[in-house]
Design brief:
single chain; alpha+beta; 12-stranded mixed sheet; globular
Length: 265
């Protein structure tokens, strides 16, 4: 399939029905706004508007800010380059949002990944995890790379896996000899979106000294195999500039630029 064809399927199956909401988060359709959020400690929210913002975009933006301000929650308004109005990002900044680094929406067919060879260095091992200690190691890795907050990563990921184990598989790569006593060298997870044909790939961070040794590719192929076994056809990734070239080299396609705009009370 071409990138445009993949984007059309993604928009219809994922964005319009809001099918990639984190399991367990409250999900609402407020007019044209797709909103999901979790209240309490470690909570937050996400907003998207795949159908546009109507005749008064600024009023819609202000209403969402007020909604989250009343609950004391920070939230992210995720935009895609083709969203309407064309100046949505500028309007969000004027309303007090801070733009995060743009990412590339990468889409592709599972079989394209499985057609590529991958190999892990012999002294390393890869395994799916379920134990709290492993989630902590993954959070340490991710926080060291992206400064996302140790507790936030650990608590959210562990809670999601505990409540919805059939929807999430978390994997790490470690030194085979040191095992749980050593750091997570690479960690990534895959979320499944039932009845859409799509699985989404997250994480993928690797310690700097272990990059360019095939770890990212190996953990990508591992997750593609799981998706194939479960009957999923398509993969979706919100890719950084570090991972985008690797994903494209492995047979996936750049479909759109996405930018998250963050608001804090």
């Amino acid at each position: 399939m071409t990138p445009d064809e993949l984007l059309e399927v993604f928009h219809r199956r994922i964005r319009l029905p809001d099918a990639d909401t984190i399991p367990g988060w409250k999900q609402e359709l407020d007019g044209l706004v797709h909103r999901s959020y979790l209240e309490g400690a470690g909570g937050g929210g996400f907003v998207e508007t795949p159908r546009g913002l109507g005749d008064d975009p600024d009023a819609v933006i202000a209403a969402q800010i007020e909604f989250f301000r009343e609950r004391g929650l920070e939230f992210e308004w995720k935009t895609y380059a083709y969203d309407e109005p064309a100046d949505l990002g500028e309007r969000l900044v004027r309303a007090g949002f801070v733009a995060a680094k743009p990412e590339t929406l990468i889409l592709g067919e599972v079989d394209a990944i499985l057609a590529r060879p991958s190999a892990l260095p012999s002294k390393l091992r890869m395994r799916d995890v379920t134990e709290p200690a492993d989630f902590h190691r993954i959070a340490v890795l991710m926080d060291s790379l992206w400064h996302m907050g140790l507790e936030r990563i650990e608590e959210r990921l562990a809670a999601e896996h505990r409540m919805f184990p059939e929807r999430l598989v978390v994997t790490l790569i470690e030194d085979a000899l040191r095992g749980p006593e050593g750091p997570a060298l690479t960690a990534a997870w895959i979320r499944f979106h039932p009845e859409t044909g799509f699985a989404s790939l997250w994480g993928g961070g690797t310690l700097p000294e272990w990059r360019r040794q095939g770890l990212y590719s190996a953990i990508l192929v591992h997750r593609a195999k799981i998706a194939k076994e479960r009957g999923y056809e398509f993969l979706r990734v919100d890719a950084s500039e570090d991972s985008r070239p690797i994903l494209q080299k492995l047979g996936l396609h750049a479909a759109a630029i996405t930018t998250g705009y963050e608001w804090k009370p």
